[in-house]
Each structure stands twice: as structure tokens, then as C-alpha cells.
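Researcher: Quick test of sequence recovery. C-alpha cells follow.
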């Protein structure tokens, strides 16, 4: 029984490492994808993009944020005109369009950790 518990504990740790790495990688990818769409004037909005992680407790949460006073306005205002294919919904659009790729990245990181890193 002790061997089983040790193996199970190691597997749980590997899955958690994989999920954390996968979520971090998926968020970084979303940040990159969204930067291709962020309205760009002087670059302040694009440069303010960041990935943050919360791995406290049993939950793993990742977030992509843009930290300028007008980030929310630019994201939500569909009537603004943007140059060079830039657009509103620069986070939600890529998230929906690439969700399968982000999930595959998380799954691959978990699989890699389960195979020994």
C-alpha cells in the first residue's frame, strides 16, 4: 500500500507541475496572440500586457492582463477604428479562436511531466 501511495503522490505532483507549466505557456501564447491585435498607437497598451499566475491551494489560475487606464475601453469599444488589422476584443477573440491549441499545450505539458519531465 505504501508503494501505491508513493506512486500516486508522485503522479499528482507531476500532473500539478504539468498543469502549472501548461497554463503558464498557454497564457504566454495568448499574450503573444493578443499583442498582434492590440490597438497600437505609441505601444503603451501592448507593452503593458502581462501574464500572472495563482497556484495557491489546489487551484491553478493564469491570467493575461493589460494595465493601462484605457485597456478595457479599447477592448470593448467595437466602434473604434484601428489600423493594420488591430481590433477590439483582442483578448477574447484569440482566446476563443485558439482555445484548442491552448488546451493541447496544457495536455502536452502534463503528459511530459508524467513521462518524467
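Model:
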Amino acid at each position: 500500500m505504501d508503494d501505491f501511495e508513493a506512486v500516486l503522490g508522485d503522479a499528482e505532483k507531476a500532473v500539478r507541475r504539468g498543469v502549472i507549466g501548461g497554463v503558464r505557456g498557454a497564457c504566454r501564447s495568448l499574450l503573444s496572440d493578443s499583442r498582434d491585435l492590440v490597438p497600437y498607437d505609441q505601444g503603451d497598451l501592448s507593452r503593458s500586457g502581462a501574464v500572472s499566475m495563482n497556484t495557491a491551494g489546489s487551484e491553478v489560475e493564469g491570467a493575461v492582463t493589460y494595465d493601462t487606464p484605457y485597456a478595457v475601453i479599447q477592448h470593448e469599444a467595437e466602434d473604434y477604428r484601428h489600423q493594420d488589422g488591430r481590433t477590439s476584443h483582442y483578448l477574447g477573440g484569440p482566446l476563443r479562436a485558439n482555445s484548442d491549441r491552448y488546451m493541447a499545450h496544457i495536455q502536452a505539458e502534463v503528459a511530459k511531466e508524467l513521462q518524467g519531465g
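The chain has five helices and two strands.
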